[in-house]
Amino acid sequence: MPSDWTFVSVDMELTNQCGSECLMCPRDAITRQEGMMSEDVFNTVSAKLIREGSLITFSGMGDPLSHPKVFEWIADIRKKNGDVGIVINPASLHERISQRLIESRPNSITISFPSIHKEIFEKLCPTITFEDALKRTQELVDLSRENAGVRIAGIKTDINSDESEQFAGFWNELDIRADMTICHGRGGNLKDSDIYGPKAFGLDSEMCGLFQFHTFVTWEADVLACCHDLTGATSIGNLVNDTVSVIAERKQNTLKDSMPFPVCRQCDEPLRYYPSPQGPPPKSRKERIRFFRSISREKISL
């Protein structure tokens, strides 16, 4: 298990390219280089994170299922006794993809499914119909039974802010774990006034709870303050060139003062309010699971 809180959880961005046009994703604002992670970068970074005992999640500003090595790399991490999850969009699923994903044996799969109301879903995710998304999601869930943990992640925007209870009930009837999180401004990058208005919470916080136990690594192995840095301006180092301990020390030094990055001053992510973790980081997978279950955004006092 990790020796430092900052590497308990790591988002590994296999690519920052994506064919979907979801309204809650400010992809048009990305100015840092776009591309796909190379095998050399993956081998170097994943080896360091597996040794550290980090929970690796294939996520970021792109579609991990579009990477040609995604299934091979999930299987590689699992073979080396690492823990790996993936965040996906149902628009990227079809029967062959779903089968290969399950066969690669990720520890967990998070499916982004923002709303159970057809008109709202299709407004937020215009590249796929609600019916197709539901069918593909159900197919993946059926394949995953007893093979991988699946979670459905909804999002409460200004047009479906009262949906949480109905959303959870809908998926619970299908025996699928589900919850909703509050739409936030992605570090000030989300400008769509139809679905989002800046929230008061987070903006006046000089610290970031998420920064304390979570690290974001780009497809080029750059460590940024978070995935919402669309320019690459918050670089803390590079996991090809730097060790985990060096990156952790730099993050710890950052936490000694208020967050210095301009993107943070525009961030209303609820987890900014999460208090500093006390004591040593989780010593086992069970401890890590308990920790993550305790930090639901819905439980943060706003």
Description:
The longest helix is centred in the middle third of the chain and has 15 residues, at 130-144. 30% of the residues lie in helices and 14% in strands. 43% of the residues are buried. It is globular. The chain has helices at residues 39-52, 70-79, 95-104, 118-124, 130-144, 164-173, 209-213, 244-255, 285-293; strands spanning 9-12, 55-58, 83-88, 108-112, 149-156, 177-182, 214-217, 222-224, 237-238. It is built from nine helices and nine strands. The chain starts with 8 loop residues before the first strand and ends in a 9-residue tail after the last helix. It is α/β, with parallel strands linked by helices. A nine-stranded mixed sheet has the order 6-5-4-3-2-1-7-8-9. Mean pLDDT is 90; it is low at 297-302.
How far do the termini sit from each other? 31 Å
SSE topology string: EHEHEHEHHEHEHEEEHH
Radius of gyration: 18 Å
Strand content: 5-15%
Please tally the helical runs, counting DSSP H or I stretches of 4 or more residues: 9
* Strands, count: 9
- Please state how the strands of the largest beta sheet are arranged side by side: 6-5-4-3-2-1-7-8-9
Topology summary:
Elements: E1 9-12, H1 39-52, E2 55-58, H2 70-79, E3 83-88, H3 95-104, E4 108-112, H4 118-124, H5 130-144, E5 149-156, H6 164-173, E6 177-182, H7 209-213, E7 214-217, E8 222-224, E9 237-238, H8 244-255, H9 285-293
Parallel strand pairs: 1-2, 1-7, 2-3, 3-4, 4-5, 5-6
Antiparallel strand pairs: 7-8, 8-9
Keywords:
302 residues, nine-stranded mixed beta sheet, 9 strands
Quick summary:
The protein is α/β, with parallel strands linked by helices and about 300 residues long. Helices cover about 30% and strands about 15% of the residues. The protein has helices at about 40-50, 70-80, 95-105, 120-125, 130-145, 165-175, 210-215, 245-255, 285-295, and strands at about 10, 55-60, 85-90, 110, 150-155, 175-180, 215, 220-225, 235-240.
